[in-house]
Amino acid sequence: MAAITVSKLQKNYGSVNALNGISFSVQKGSLFGIIGADGAGKSSLMRILVTLTNSDSGQVSVLEKNVDSDYQFIRSQIGYMPQRFSLYQDLSVKENLLFFADIYGVKSRQRKERFEKLLSFSRLEQFQNRRAAHLSGGMKQKLALCCALIHTPDILILDEPTTGVDPVSRNEFWDILKDLRKQGITIVVSTPYMDEASMCEQLLILHKGEILKNGTPEELLHSYPYLIYRVGKDSGSLIFKTPSILPDGIKLLYPSSGMMHVVLQNRDISKESVFSTVKSIFPEINFIESITPGIEDLFILLISERQ
Description:
The protein is of the alpha/beta class. It is 33% helix and 28% strand.
């Protein structure tokens, strides 16, 4: 059963097509990821799903309700965490939770149990009297998530929730999302981080308002058509400057974690030949190895084919 269905969705800002007739669905109880660079249309899509922005054309249903006509019901059933921290900085952790409990009409007899549960799983118990302004970036995001969950929504929609958050807090945040998924909550999360994308059950790759690919991470990576190598040196990162013209047989050459990924146009080129060709451009390299492409490699390939 689909928790969210989007059909031929169009959203324009003047002459800019933020969303260009996209269609997809999100299955109930799934962890659905949307990846794309800045300007891909992720935030516009999120705001339409949570009924904060109207589309120009197309159909969107959430829990089988239309986002235009049934927005009050939809708002009561979803939790939304926008890209920017939007809680009250001068209120404490507990006061923010109390405020959102009032907004969502959470009855007083239910609050104590929910507060304890949310503060426990977010590890904010000992900070509940601290003002939001004095929390770290990771703690602020956890608090925002708690406020989005205070009314126990069926669907959780998160717009780049870990942007600017340190790696440890990012991992903790995703552990929380996985636990929520096990509880049956449908989660839609946008992210610019490719390592986070691989943790989702279903992925939608969005670029300039259009869907490039949609499927499970395994399905998407299985569709990668080229042989790919990683080249580098034993110590230190490569100083990378893309040559204006790529050598024959090489489709893409780009940096990745201090090394370079080399995508071959032709699978018949030998490993030794690839190494020799790349070393003529970057003399400092001293090793080459074949690798399995990741989500980042697929994303770069798809973007390059649209240019």
